Amino acid sequence: MIxxxxxxxxxxxxxxxxxxxxxxxxxxxxxVDVSESVDxxxxxxxxxxxxxxxxxxxxxxxxxxxxxxxxDATVIEWSDxxxxxxxxxxxxxxxxxxxxxxxxxxxxxxxxxxxxxxIGDALLAAAAAFKREKDVPDHRVIDVSGDGMANIGPxxxxxxxxxxxxxxxxxxxAILKTEPWLDDYYSxxxxxxxxxxxxxxxxxxxxxxxxxxxxxxxxxxRPIPDRAALLQMx
Length: 234
Prior knowledge:
This protein has 234 residues and is an alpha/beta fold. The chain has one domain: von Willebrand factor, type A domain (Rossmann fold, 3-Layer(aba) Sandwich), CATH 3.40.50. It contains 8 helices and 7 strands; from the N terminus they run H-E-H-H-E-E-H-H-E-H-E-H-E-H-E. It has a 7-stranded mixed β-sheet with strand order 3-2-1-4-5-6-7, sandwiched between helices. A hairpin with a 5-residue loop joins strand 2 (71-78) and strand 3. The radius of gyration is 18 Å and the shape is globular.
């Protein structure tokens, strides 16, 4: 029975036209820290913060105001060297309905891992995601959030420099709860590329506000007066 069905299944796949690539303003990888230092409550604050940001009328309006009126976004959770998981795959977002669907997918995804903090590997996984992107983005942006310095894996600054050379922008959101100096580390070793910027928050309670502000900057691709400037979110 299986052998009889397989040729027809293969023929159906081969005869299905591939989705046509379309231009989008930004292809955005949200790379979210789920290492051991992030407890269940803090994870939920990150999770819910991302969902709420895409439900924000301001974010939806910013997406619609772009030259192409659409972005593509995906979520990757990361921790240890072998733990980078796509929890929400590439989704085209162009209006409130598609933004709400993306938010719902974020809420529906379970936590993927715990482990050490391999920022370099997270950046590599985020860059690899662009190879699966079917649309044609004007900008490619990695939005990496985390609460600690890398303690395993390739050096983030080495990976960062290689990705920036490919035209990828890396922005950061540093959560200072356990490492108050993390903003300096992210500014020096993680972020880079055209119009890159860093936001810092004191704790996970401020994450939702910060990620919304960060998305607004990334979607609009607005230049930041001082690329290394830190915006304190209260």
